[in-house]
Specification:
Largest sheet: none
Number of strands: 0
Distance between the termini: 79 Å
Number of helices: 4
Length: 135
């Protein structure tokens, strides 16, 4: 590489840097405007949470009732995996040193998800024993 090509590439890169810095300034202004307007727009968080809960109830109902009997064991395995994710979130919520409502709900979430996980393993074990050969 000669000195002229290095100078041209440097000038071109400098142009890119100037363009990107201009875009970052525009993005910063947009983010500041969004943060300033955050309290003025949007739905109530309770309504949004309730809507998500109702929709997940409908989706869960139709998913579970449309599963063929041959797929019940994999479905149990997936629900156990989901419950293990719930356990992690509940442990995080209940792990505060001070007593609060989130630690109480976290504790109950750990207990209920544990019951769900162990019950799922028992049901899965019983279903798999139905397919084993009799001795």
């Amino acid at each position: 590489m000669d000195l002229n090509s290095i100078a041209q590439q440097t000038a071109r890169l400098n142009g890119f840097v100037q363009e990107i810095s201009g875009e970052l300034v525009n993005l910063e202004g947009s983010l500041r405007q969004v943060i300033a307007n955050q309290g003025q727009v949007g739905a109530d968080p309770f309504v949004m949470g309730l809507m998500v809960f109702v929709l997940t109830c409908f989706v869960g109902y139709y998913v579970v009732w449309k599963v063929t009997p041959a797929l019940h064991s994999p479905l149990m395995a997936v629900t156990n995996a989901i419950s293990s994710v719930i356990i992690v979130g509940a442990l995080i919520a209940s792990g505060h040193s001070e007593f609060s409502i989130s630690s109480t709900f976290g504790f109950f979430a750990v207990v209920l998800a544990s019951i769900n996980i162990f019950g799922g393993f028992i049901v899965t074990q019983r279903m798999l024993s139905m397919f084993s050969k009799k001795r």
